[in-house]
Specification:
six-stranded mixed sheet, alpha/beta, about 260 residues, single chain, globular, 10 helices, four-stranded antiparallel sheet, Rossmann fold
Length: about 260
């Protein structure tokens, strides 16, 4: 169904108590807290969506609901027109790939880390565009370099490059610029947006830096207290052309003094 969005959430609710039941260890004093509270959202195929919000405000939980790392307690989550509960979980997680904020590597070389994607995607020993995906994340290191010798920012970019080799329909990135300086972050995001556009991939990116939106483009979703506080063109958020609550959350742009 070509008119179906890549992602659709309808009245999705997740509570801290629900997370506890999945052994994700929420704060002990927040049993009844709503992490996501009636969140509804459509993301068209091939679009870019940034997600901003308070620390602990449900941004990562939102991404995890999309590929069933977390099951919503209420509401409906659909990927490419199908309820996530109707997908084979392995197929879903290869289709909607989530790259967490923490880097998970296996201790091999840069090339060895990338080769893991061949096994995950059942592609076998075929020629893969290792150079292309490394370029897409701005990682200029020898492929025989041990991954343990990379900086944290380089390790995270390697994890993203590995995810690109799964050729996902949806790519979900959790704080991909957290360990990067501003210039490197902008260069990587620009290359990733170009890669996603070329492949027709829907890109969802959690970020804590409104300045990232200048490069990401598309739209931005603001989550405050587990609810959708607003959805704006990314350029409007970067320029602080938003409502009062969102403006208060965003604060002053970088370089503006009081």
């Amino acid at each position: 169904m070509p008119d179906e969005p890549a992602i659709r959430l309808t009245d999705v609710r997740v509570t801290a108590a629900g997370l506890r039941s999945m052994l994700l260890d929420p704060p002990v004093d927040a049993e009844d807290q709503a992490i996501l509270d009636g969140v509804s959202l459509d993301v068209p195929v091939g679009d870019v969506l940034s997600v901003l919000g308070e620390s602990g405000g449900g941004k990562t939980t939102l991404l995890r609901c999309i590929n069933r790392m977390i099951d919503a307690e209420a509401g409906e989550v659909q990927v490419l027109g199908r309820s996530v509960r109707d997908w084979d979980v392995r197929e879903l997680r290869r289709t909607a790939v989530f790259v967490p904020q923490r880097s998970y590597l296996f201790g091999g070389t840069v090339r060895g880390e990338l080769i893991h994607a061949l096994r995950w995607n059942n592609r076998g020993a075929i020629k893969m565009p290792f150079g292309e995906v490394l370029e897409a994340v701005g990682l200029s290191v020898p492929q025989d370099k041990p991954a343990t010798e990379l900086s944290e920012g380089q390790r995270h970019r390697l994890c993203i490059a590995r995810a690109l080799l799964l050729f996902p329909k949806i790519l979900m990135l959790d704080e991909p610029t957290g360990a990067l300086d501003v210039r490197t972050a902008r260069e990587m995001l620009a290359a990733l947006v170009a890669w996603a556009r070329d492949k027709g991939t829907t890109l969802v990116c959690v970020t804590h830096r409104p300045e990232d939106l200048e490069v990401l483009g598309g739209e931005a979703l603001i989550l405050l207290q587990g609810k959708v506080a607003g959805r704006y063109p990314a350029a409007d958020v970067a320029a602080r052309k938003v409502d009062a609550d969102t403006s208060a959350f965003l604060g002053k742009p970088s370089g503006v003094s009081s």
